[in-house]
TrEMBL record:
UniProt-recorded name of the protein: VOC family protein
Domain VOC positions: 22-136, 150-265
UniProt region (Disordered), positions on chain: 1-21
PROSITE patterns linked to this entry: VOC (PS51819)
Species the sequence originates in: Streptomyces atrovirens
């Protein structure tokens, strides 16, 4: 797991346009926007400014004045999960949407313009995992990385990793890092030699309360402290903090049930 955004600048300055295929944004859809702002503001130190309203009420989360993520309200007439969704950069979102469809995926929203910020589409892969595509205009996407409160990684949980990875490789031009013998059903997607996302298969194991899905990892100063804050703020613990090859990690939910992970990078 490394910084996967490539063109974001952690030390200030306007971010450059993200290379196509790069994870460039994450957005959360919820029922109660005000309570969700309070949760993530207390957890990550985010502030919130109004964002493009094409999909309904929407805010941009900022850290030290730089864009980190977005939050919108679920349409009341649609049965959609409360979930974080990763967006991948594209130079032509309409063309990418066509490729998604031709590879067996679906496009449920868009392509459409988000005011002058850019153009987007929201789709799902053949297994049903939801992701977004972002063609930047005024807003390239996440503008800061590598510090607490910023997205660090995105990992897809699905039934069978190899077939699903081929979908994303075709759509976004990724290369595939060979699986390790100790973890044969895990694929690392690479772009220009850099790891940008992971795909983990569960085989025939049931995904009980939801189907295939993406999980966003956020950098924190300390995973154990972050979990304590999540619980104190009304969230839940799904996977206790544990040490892994990329740092100390825990999986949690916010009060509405949106899953995400916190990762404390090794010192």
């Amino acid at each position: 797991m490394t910084d996967a955004r490539g063109n974001a600048r952690p030390n200030g300055g306007a971010p450059a346009r993200h290379t196509p295929g790069t994870p460039c944004w994450v957005s959360l859809t919820v029922h109660g926007l005000e309570a969700t702002e309070e949760f993530y503001g207390a957890l990550f130190g985010w502030e919130f400014h109004p964002g493009p309203q094409q999909l309904g009420p929407y805010v941009r989360a900022l850290l030290d004045g730089r864009e980190v993520a977005g939050m919108g309200v679920l349409p009341p007439d649609r049965e959609l999960p409360v979930a974080w969704t990763p967006y991948f950069a594209s130079d032509d979102v309409d063309l990418t949407a066509d490729v998604v469809r031709s590879c067996g995926g679906t496009v449920g929203v868009g392509p459409l313009d988000a005011a002058d910020a850019g153009r987007l589409a929201i789709g799902s892969d053949p297994g049903g995992a939801v992701f977004g595509v972002w063609q930047a205009a005024a807003s390239p996407g996440t503008a800061v990385s590598g510090v607490p409160g910023t997205p660090a990684w995105n990992e897809l949980t699905t039934f069978e990793s190899a077939r699903t990875a081929k979908f994303y490789e075709t759509v976004f031009g990724y290369d595939e890092e060979p699986a390790l013998p100790a973890d044969p059903d895990h694929v690392t997607l690479r772009l220009n030699g850099r790891p940008v996302a992971g795909v983990r298969g569960v085989g025939r194991a049931p995904l009980r309360d939801r189907g295939p899905h993406w999980t966003t990892y956020f950098t924190v100063a300390g995973a154990d402290d972050a979990v304590e804050r999540v619980l104190r703020l009304g969230g839940r613990l799904l996977t206790p903090p544990h040490d892994g090859p990329h740092g100390r990690v825990a999986t949690v939910t916010d009060p509405e049930g949106a899953r995400f992970a916190v990762v404390e990078s090794p010192r």
